[in-house]
Amino acid sequence: MMRYPNGSKKRVSRANTAPASSADKYSNRGMTLEEDLNAANIYYLSRNIASIHKKPTPVQIVNVDYPKRSAAVIKEAYFKQASTTDYNGVYKGYHVDFEAKETRNKTSFPLSNIHAHQIAHMEQVIHQRGLSFIIIRFAPLEETYLMESEYIIEYWNNQERGGRKSIPYQTVKDKAYTIPFHFQARLDYLKAVDMVLEKLEEN
Amino acid sequence: MMRYPNGSKKRVSRANTAPASSADKYSNRGMTLEEDLNAANIYYLSRNIASIHKKPTPVQIVNVDYPKRSAAVIKEAYFKQASTTDYNGVYKGYHVDFEAKETRNKTSFPLSNIHAHQIAHMEQVIHQRGLSFIIIRFAPLEETYLMESEYIIEYWNNQERGGRKSIPYQTVKDKAYTIPFHFQARLDYLKAVDMVLEKLEEN
Lengths: 203, 203
What we know:
CATH topology of chain A: Trna Endonuclease, Chain: A, domain 1
Order of helices and strands of chain A: HEEEEEEHEEHEHEEEH
Oligomer: homodimer
Largest interface: A-B, 46 and 46 residues
Structural class of chain A: alpha+beta
Shape of chain A: globular
CATH class of chain A: Alpha Beta
Radius of gyration of chain A: 18 Å
Helix content of chain A: 25-40%
Strand order of the largest sheet of chain A: 1-4-5-7-8-10
Strand content of chain A: 25-35%
Number of helices of chain A: 5
Distance between the termini of chain A: 48 Å
CATH architecture of chain A: 3-Layer(aba) Sandwich
Number of strands of chain A: 12
């Protein structure tokens, strides 16, 4: 089994949840947030709804072997820290940029899931009038939200000044948009993006 | 020295060109197109002009070693074909997406530099109203152009129907935008993007 340098890609066990009988939200069981987002992006692309992709894991390649008559093999490489968020693309003329994080926590979203360089990146995207947000999954609750980066940045800056190190679950529930489960798209997060766009167009 | 599975990242020797005396276009000598674009993107980011990044090289990781008290080492991995273009980001609210290609050819840009899946990606980006283009460098001429993907797609489709396998240099010169050399940004390609935007706003 492959392991990653950070915990964001760990498969979250949901073996403790009750068995499901139909295509309700429990159909999602056993899929990581990343798998759900990949399924959504493939669905969006196939229907010409949006072109959004996960960026490859950044790797520092040190040594490559070139065996005769077969593909190059990377023999030594190291994980690098990403300088941006993991997902971006274009939807209805909007630049869309986001990070996706899963937490096992039920009562708050720990800011330790986010890195300083990602906050800086979110600020850059907002400055250029892109749509910047985080998709947060509370795995034990099987609830997934889209929270605009402005809130994340606010909590982050407050933490820097000695404030709390997490965003309370209730704040996420109040400020963020619930992402509905969709049979084909799985995690139909563009529904939540549409709500952000509606709000922007009202202002 | 590291080698890549495709030729797009090869360093182009310019040892045959005449020596330069000042900060004119020859100051660019010895820098690959990729290095120039990285320098431009760092400059744009540092001045809050745009947030545009090169995507990491996609790698299929097969085996990772976890030595005690040191970083994880990737022991076996393979290069994967990218499913998108190499660069994207956001500029003045516009989603910007492009591929960069250097050719040693002086008379035409060979379409063999582009892959079918990249053409499909360009079509998706255009459909979502993003700005899609290719940055083409004719290395022996030390000339770099921004060509909108619409032209590339046109030539590509024509090739599929048995047409020519390259875009003539003169067509690039006529249809594309010259990218000026800039002392700080090096390859100041957003100047060419501005010209595309002006044209779009006129229509």
